[in-house]
């Protein structure tokens, strides 16, 4: 599943530097910006009895759109009622 999603983004937003002006950080620079604009930057998931309330085939995926690894963090805001 993750392989297919990554392959799709690779086809959708090519890392061909001839297509972009903004390439100062390398061939994945502008494609990473475009891919980030196409994916979610925040997500709300209900929690029931201490578990994520997702459907049978649902999951949460976090993508790094740059070729080189970067240090990232995930922030969680848990609201109770």
Task: Describe the 3D structure.
By secondary structure, the chain is mostly helical. The protein contains 2 helices and 2 strands, in the order H-H-E-E. The protein has helices spanning 2-12, 29-38; strands spanning 47-48, 51-52. A two-stranded antiparallel sheet has the order 1-2. A hairpin with a 2-residue loop joins strand 1 (47-48) and strand 2 (51-52). The radius of gyration is 16 Å and the shape is elongated. The model has no long low-confidence stretch (mean pLDDT 89).
Category from helices, strands and their pairing: mainly alpha
The number of distinct β-strands equals 2
Q: In what order do the strands lie side by side in the largest sheet?
A: 1-2
Radius of gyration: 16 Å
Mean pLDDT reading: 89
Q: Level of helix content?
A: 25-40%
Q: Biggest β-sheet, characterized?
A: 2 strands, antiparallel
The parts where pLDDT drops under 50 for at least 5 residues are none
The run of helices and strands is HHEE
Cα(first) to Cα(last) distance is 34 Å
User: What's the overall geometry?
Assistant: elongated
Percent strand? under 5%
Q: Please work out how many helical segments DSSP would assign.
A: 2
């Amino acid at each position: 599943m993750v392989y297919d999603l990554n392959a799709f983004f690779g086809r959708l937003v090519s890392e061909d530097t001839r297509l972009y002006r903004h390439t100062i950080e390398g061939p994945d620079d502008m494609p990473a910006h475009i891919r980030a604009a196409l994916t979610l930057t925040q997500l709300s998931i209900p929690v029931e009895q201490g578990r994520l309330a997702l459907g049978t085939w649902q999951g949460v995926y976090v993508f790094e759109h740059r070729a080189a690894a970067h240090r990232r963090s995930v922030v969680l805001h848990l609201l109770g009622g």
